[in-house]
Specification:
By secondary structure, the protein is mainly alpha-helical. The chain is 73% helix and 0% strand. The chain contains 16 helices and no strands. The longest helix is centred in the middle third of the chain and has 28 residues, at 201-228. The chain starts with a helix and ends with a helix.
Length: 348
């Protein structure tokens, strides 16, 4: 299984590294493989990583991703598009020095520029959609729906990359659809009073569509990253993501008339934490994938859902319904199953 499959549910368009949401295929394994092949003597002297360290890194990344989602939810006076713009500025300050140091340039290989632009458009759109979902629907519901991303990755990889789409993939897709239905609880299936949120159901439905849109765009982003492979530097991929996201968010804010600095000092702190914690979560997830197999990492990533449920109950005093729990089980089981299935296939 490829690393990005396991991170597909990560966060913000960060496939995974991305989420998330952002590492190109093989990016995590390449340095280690090169070092092993080129220096067998040093490998013997090198200390083996502590057992379970990769899973610990992954657990930390899940916790930090959940904290990022929590702070997005807490910032209610700032539009989701503006939060995305602040996030892009923060990441840009980190990426520019890295590109200069690595001497990769800011444009990329001629044959890959169209894919880099698509990656930037899709990834930044996915980020805006998930931030909107966090603000308009329960934290646990939005987080759970993002775990349908690997299903869309499989479908798009089958269509555009001609990868195999097995009956198991179809089964996992059906599980994901069932999970989303249980979370959304459409009135025409469950009755007009079954949702328990009659007054805000339309807003909840908009958030649901945004979360599903995030999963779709994140899945398409991962397929593009696979298509580019190792021919494009990881930081260059992020550069296109943040610069296109910043330009697009700025234009959207002026069109919507929503641009405004946060009035509350606490909101400003939340925006800084969103940028810092999101980047730290990506680092820990990448480290986890470097020293641990992708299958166990994919399973550990589902702790994101557990943290989301805990934050929703403790911070927002909102106990999820049993419908949401059932939907979460379906979606998480689908995500884990798809990850393990691809991991098994790739290990044959």
């Amino acid at each position: 299984m490829r690393p990005e499959d396991s991170a597909g549910a990560a966060e913000p368009g960060e496939p995974v590294l991305l989420l998330t949401d952002d590492a190109p295929p093989g990016a995590s394994e390449a340095p280690a493989a090169a070092e092993t092949a080129g220096a067998p003597g040093r490998e013997a002297k090198k200390k083996a990583p502590c057992p379970g360290l990769g899973l610990l890194y992954t657990l930390l990344s899940a916790f930090l991703f959940s904290l990022t989602s929590l702070f997005v939810k807490k910032v209610q006076d700032v539009h989701a598009v503006e939060i995305s713009a602040f996030r892009c500025v923060f990441q840009m300050l980190i990426v520019i020095p890295c590109l200069i140091y690595r001497k990769t340039g800011f444009i990329g290989p001629k044959g890959q520029r169209i894919f880099l632009i698509l990656r930037g458009v899709l990834g930044s759109t996915a980020m805006i959609l998930i931030y909107y979902a966090f603000q308009t629907m329960p934290l646990a519901d939005a987080t759970v729906i993002t775990f349908s991303s690997p299903v869309f990755t499989s479908i798009f990889a089958w269509i555009f990359l001609k990868e195999k789409y097995s009956p198991w993939d179809a089964f996992f897709t059906l599980c994901s659809i069932t999970g989303v239905i249980l979370i959304v609880r459409p009135p025409f299936l469950f009755g007009s009073s079954s949702s328990g949120m009659e007054e805000g159901y339309s807003v909840h439905l908009k958030g649901t569509f945004a979360a599903i849109g995030h999963a779709v765009f994140a899945g398409m982003t991962l397929v593009i990253l696979r298509k580019m492979g190792k021919s494009v530097d990881y930081f260059l991929s992020i550069w296109y993501y943040v610069i296109i996201g910043l330009v697009g968010s700025t234009i959207a804010l002026f069109i919507l008339g929503e641009w405004s600095l946060p009035y509350c000092g606490l909101d400003r702190l939340y925006l800084i934490l969103i940028g810092g914690l999101g980047l730290s979560a990506q680092v820990f997830l990448t480290k986890g994938l470097q020293i641990e197999k992708a299958g166990p990492v994919a399973v550990m990533r589902t702790m994101d859902v557990v943290f989301a449920f805990i934050f929703q109950i403790i911070i927002f005093n909102d106990v999820p319904s049993w419908w949401t729990v059932g939907g979460a089980i379906c979606l998480v089981a689908s995500s884990i199953g798809a990850a393990i299935h691809r991991w098994y296939d790739s290990s044959k």
